[in-house]
Amino acid sequence: MVTAEAIFPVSQTQGTGPEPEAAAERFHQLQAQLANRWQSIDAFDRRPRQILVVPSLSLAQSELMKIKGVHHYEERLLFSLIRLRNPETRIIYVTSQPLHPSIVDYYLELLPGIPSSHARDRLDLFSTYDSSLRPLSEKILARPRLIQRIRDRIKPGEAYMTCYNSTELEKELALTLNLPLLAVDPDLLHWGTKSGSRQIFAECGLPLPDGSELTHSATELAEVTAALWERQPELQRIVIKLNEGFSGEGNALLLLAPLADVAPGKADHSERAAAIRAAMPQLRYQCDTETWESFELKIEELGAIAEAFIEGEQKYSPSVQGRVTPQGEVEILSTHDQVLGGPDGQIFLGCTFPADDAYRLALQEMGRKVGENLAAKGALERYSVDFIAVNQPQQAEPWQLHAIEINLRKGGTTHPFMALKLMTNGAYSCEDGKFYTKNGQAKYYRASDNLQKDAYRGLLPNDLMDIIMGEQLHFSAIDGVGVVFHLMGCLSEHGKLGLTCIGNTHREAEAIYEQVVAALDRATQ
User: In what order do the strands lie in the sheet with 89-95?
Assistant: First the structure.
């Protein structure tokens, strides 16, 4: 029997003390200090600064277990080292397991305009030496001596903490270290769930698929799913979404063709709901290790919604990324077309930048509305909004956008965009949604977290460098094109690698991606 303890992290509220109201007030006081301690990454910051980076994936551990090499995803925030180009900034980076030295050297050598040795002297690496599936923040909190060593590197009034996603664990760690947290207050995380996202979309007047309220039992879910089908009898599929799913892994499809005998007009509501309930063990899961037993338990614990599956012959999955600054300003950072995979194209594999010309500016405008709504609710830092774009040529506006969900965390599009900024020192233009270098050259990229083949297993980071240097596919600062790698720690054990291929056109970026794959294939035959 699968238990809740086996699926979800241990309590994330322990340690906030016997006076949670006092802790909440102190947290808000710390957050108010961010306005003076944080500077945009585009600014050259000369002030003394310490930034604690805690790349903890504090999410439902059962969902993370579906991702091969997930413990290496703590490497994805290594692009935070871009801050070391500011000469008075120190980075304290904590991981569950020690980082391979060549991986650290690789990132430091990418820093433009500063000796890598100077940057290395301002980088402190700490590890918990704990490979368990608990969130990194929880591991740190369990090690008071490690906390003291981190505290020794921090000067009052100069430091802040940043993370991958924010929960009560990160809040507790920030309070323990007396640091402001550059992340959303965990009290606001509801707005990043599936149900919370739908509420914000409605408040902003954005188009969204028809869907249900949040439910916590399979029987209730069958009822609201039946009601959705009755509202839209033409539906072919309905997607069931865990309220806190990750990268599409928490989605499952209900195929309606096998239920034709109870379709609207052929049976009453109770018969339809009963048939849907009986069919739920045959849901089409997006993760091949999922089972109905564990999925039903997650419905009870996390909640789930039913949502109309958007069909279309020409369909894309774009997203827009934004940020609410500590000063309360809303900034649009980027747009992407997501590369999705899995049985039904629900799982994030990678992305291309920027999103298609046909809807890029519309994405920006909708993303700004969401950001302003989040800012009014008190949210902070990065957010992204995922959409479905369907081409309907007969319409006056042929590309129809449907808002799908909000993510209140750094995501799969964060680190490739940071790689672009790191390598080119350029800036994003909201006028046309493109990224330009200082000499006015537009840049494009194709990125992936999931270049994975069994043949790549056994390759060390140094082997990867040898292959790419031999094939002359490394990033060229002169030409401003090439490839930047991440998730290199995944390579030897899992044959998995992340990369961002930067070019002067979409076609060039895609060609570089294909050249890298071909080079790795040749080297591992």
Answer: 123-127, 89-95, 49-54, 159-163, 181-182
